[in-house]
Amino acid sequence: MRLIASYEAGLSAWRAGDFTAAIAAFETSRQLRGADAASSLMIERCRHQLANPTDEDWDGTTVARSK
Predict the structure, then answer these.
(1) Model confidence over 32-54: pLDDT tens digits?
(2) How many domains are there within the chain?
(3) How many other β-carbons are positioned within 10 Å of the β-carbon of residue 15?
(4) Is residue 56 part of a domain?
(5) Cys-Cys with 13: which of 21, 31, 35, 41 at CB 3.0–4.6 Å?
(6) pLDDT tens digit string along 6-20?
(7) Are 60 and 15 in contact (CB under 8 A)?
(8) Other CB atoms closer than 10 Å to residue 35's CB: what's the count?
(9) Has residue 14 been placed in a domain?
(10) Quick check: 60 pLDDT over 80?
(11) Domain membership flag for residue 44
(12) Is 22 within a domain?
């Protein structure tokens, strides 16, 4: 249950644009589960958003630019 709660908290923070809080929540998920690919991917996406901020009208959508 704690794993699910921390991942959901990460998603909520992601959607709200609070990438620092999202990283913390996804890190918790990753620690609880071990090698968690979904949490690791979201951490990468959060770090990208922090380094490359999007417009204020960002809706949480990520567009794949490569395969």
Answers:
(1) 888 789 999 999 999 999 998 88
(2) 1
(3) 13
(4) no
(5) 21
(6) 999 999 999 999 999
(7) yes
(8) 7
(9) yes
(10) no
(11) yes
(12) yes
